[in-house]
Amino acid sequence: PIGVLGRKVRQLARVSQDKVADLGSHVDETLHEIRTVQSYGHEEADSVHFSSRVEAVMDAARLRIRYRASLMASVVLLSIVAIILVTWVGALNVLDGSLTAGQLSAFMFYALLVAGGVATISEVIGDIQRAAGATERLIELSRMQSDIKDPESPVDFPAYSKGNVTFSDVSFTYPGDDNLPVFSSLSFDVKAGERVALVGPSGAGKSSVFTLLQRFFDIQQGQTLLDGVPIKDMSLKTLRDQFALVPQESVIFATNVLENVRYGAPEASEDKVIEACKAARAHEFIEALPHGYQTELGERGMRLSGGQKQRISIARAILADRPILLLDEATSALDAVSEHQVKQALDTLMDGKTSLVIAHRLATVVNADRILVLDDGQLVASGSHQELMETNALYREFASLQLFASEANVISQSAS
């Protein structure tokens, strides 16, 4: 039994471990990109995917346990046969007088009692302790509550907002960093359909604006409003359904192209996905992949270039069709050809929508309707590119550095 069933148990144990690893990979990926999951309201779909992977783990475990049980049953059966043989030999010894019946009975009784009891207890206690430790941690995690909760009576907000965004006297500090305030009495308005660029040095709070708009954290003072409604009075799903996010580092999940694009709209048809990819200038390179829209992209989209990842991310935002766009400069790490293609896709995406753009390149700033200059958590200037060049020293420094970098890039390309 050990030679035949043991090898099968070992093979199934490997399969079972692979299923557990697949489950762990899914959990790690989802938690690593938790803000993208929440931004697109994908919690329920991920819950379904998680359940299916758990069932796959359980199916593999059941088969492994079935073979292991057969193995143990076979070993026990052989043990019983051995006991019968020993008892038979002992009985012959009793008959010829070399052993008394009491000695034989005592030997068999205590040997079976001690050996069986110790083996059973050691195995069961080990399993119980291991399971108990895991169960306690699982129960602890399952009882954890999010600090960000839905209001008891959410306001009745339309499914598709106009797109007016307001920060009113906002002061904010990340939990645990009480001595490092991010914003201090920050106030600004973004009108529906307006393209607004956020400019400033690292640590000025540009990314935190996006974080607070989607309510990943609650502010300590002031109000953040959407179409005049405080976001704290809205349900989290309704609030986050208003935003489409295109991060600087594109998020690609370990599934096929089709599922990646319709991440923000799981019910979208394949035709709608293709239409969004064409608008994002992604259809051509997707068609060139081995299996087209069914091509598996690998973990973190390892099969795609940076520009291709960005266009997949833009197609996802186009398909989601949210009224407000949050764009963390999507062209800052791309070559000239990819940058041109991504900019065309972004122009399509931003048409008719409220757009907040974290700007790292001058081209993005120049095309914005308005530029907000942030420094040390405060709004220090607001206006067009030309107005700020004339009135704000920080912005002039930003623009001059960008122009210097652009000229240096052109010179290096010409030399090469």
Explain how this protein is built.
- The strands form two sheets. The chain has a six-stranded mixed β-sheet with strand order 6-7-8-3-9-10, with helices on both faces.
- It folds into two domains: 5-142, ABC transporter type 1, transmembrane domain (ABC transporter transmembrane region fold); 165-415, P-loop containing nucleotide triphosphate hydrolases (Rossmann fold, 3-Layer(aba) Sandwich).
- 55% of the residues lie in helices and 13% in strands.
- The relative contact order is 0.09.
- It is an alpha/beta fold and 416 residues long.
- It has 14 helices and ten strands.
Please give the oligomerization state of what you see. Answer: single chain
- Return the average pLDDT rounded to an integer: 80
Q: Overall 3D geometry? A: elongated
Structural class: alpha/beta
Can you tell me the CATH topology of the largest domain? Rossmann fold
Radius of gyration: 32 Å
* Number of domain modules: 2
Largest sheet, in brief, is:
6 strands, mixed
- CATH fourth-tier homologous superfamily of the largest domain: P-loop containing nucleotide triphosphate hydrolases
For the secondary structure, the number of strands is 10
Order of helices and strands: HHHHEEEHEEHEHHHHEHEHEEHH
Indicate the proportion of strand residues: 5-15%
The helical percent reads: 40-55%
Model regions low in confidence, pLDDT < 50 over at least 5 residues: 410-416
Strand order within the widest beta sheet: 6-7-8-3-9-10
- The helix count comes to 14
CATH class identity of the largest domain = Alpha Beta
